[in-house]
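Sequence in, structure out. Go.
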Amino acid sequence: MKNLILFIFVSFVFACSSDLEEKKKFEAYTGPIMEVDTVKILYSDSAKVRVIVNASKQYEFENGDREFPNDIYIEFYEPDGKMSSTLEANSAYYTKETDIYKAEGDVEVIGYIEPRKLNSEELYWEPQKEEIYTETFVRIQSEDQISTGTGLRAKQDFSSYRILNPSGTIYLDEQDNTSDKKQDSPQKSINSEKANTDSSKIKPAKKIINGPNEPQKEANK
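Output:
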């Protein structure tokens, strides 16, 4: 009888231990609770759409965080409905507690109010402050210059920005002028006809950053 009671007690303890282990396994799960394809998230102000977040796939977690593993494309709009800028990246993660998006992998921002393009490997976006920022390397190209550095703070419409640690600026106009001088200076004495031909050379076309609904076009300087 004593052996039978001992066996029942051991079995009971083992069963309780198994239940606790299963419970621990269940509580330890931190994966997504929902998976959605082709996501579109709208941010509005005064009944007007100001931001559209697009992604081909979204994972949602129990704490409200969201992951965009494949891509993300964000469109920013002015109160009058005109697109002001776009943000595109290979992936992104949204933290609900801080209300911050973190975009990663070949991040590109294009501004249309002030035509310019930003490239980086990591970028944060705060919807409440309407700001984007990073601590990593950045490259910004406008119609007449290319600026590089580490760290950046900017408005989400990319109408203004500040590079925290600038490393250099290349002025495209000066580069073109230097190139022209190098081509024109040698062998001017060969004949006057060649000199006249050199002076009338057409400079190479320069790419212009157009609006979101305008076709890309080229213009001669």
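Check: Confidence is low (pLDDT under 50) at residues 1-14, 179-209, 214-221. Residues 34-171 form a domain with the lipopolysaccharide transport protein A fold fold (CATH 2.60.450.10).
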